[in-house]
Amino acid sequence: MTHTHSFDEARWIAALGTAIDRATAADPITPGIRYRSGTATLAFCVDASGAISDIRVIEGSGDDSLDRRAIAKLRRAEPLPQGPAGAARRTHLAVVQVAEPVRLPQQNDEKRRILTIA
């Protein structure tokens, strides 16, 4: 069975891809700062109104924090372009690259003062 799409629906699907790619672009990396990074593959549904629902992690990054960041990046794509009349709810996949700076524990001010005086 082959699926046929109207020209308007094909244009909508392309517009969805562009909006999702823009929202899930790779995080900027600043030289000299340590990062942890990963890639998460997400499945999600888009209805004709452009609303995203049913986001699922299909293949995680191995780090729950990075997976949550990937989902948040996808959510930033909303609202997506509206579909043409009669457009069906669609399931999509997105591969999202994420990076977070590694936060090192900070010494409290008292310890810093002692080290400076000594």
TrEMBL record:
GO cellular component terms, A-Z: membrane
InterPro entries, A to Z: TonB/TolA_C, TonB_C
Membrane topology: Single-pass membrane protein
This protein's UniProt keywords: Membrane, Transmembrane, Transmembrane helix
Superkingdom field: Bacteria
Major localisation: membrane
GO biological process: transmembrane transport
Domain TonB C-terminal: 12-113
Subcellular location: Membrane
Coiled coil: none
NCBIfam families reported in the protein's UniProt record: tonB_Cterm
Protein name, as recorded: Energy transducer TonB
Source organism per UniProt: Sphingomonas alpina
Source organism phylogeny: Bacteria, Pseudomonadati, Pseudomonadota, Alphaproteobacteria, Sphingomonadales
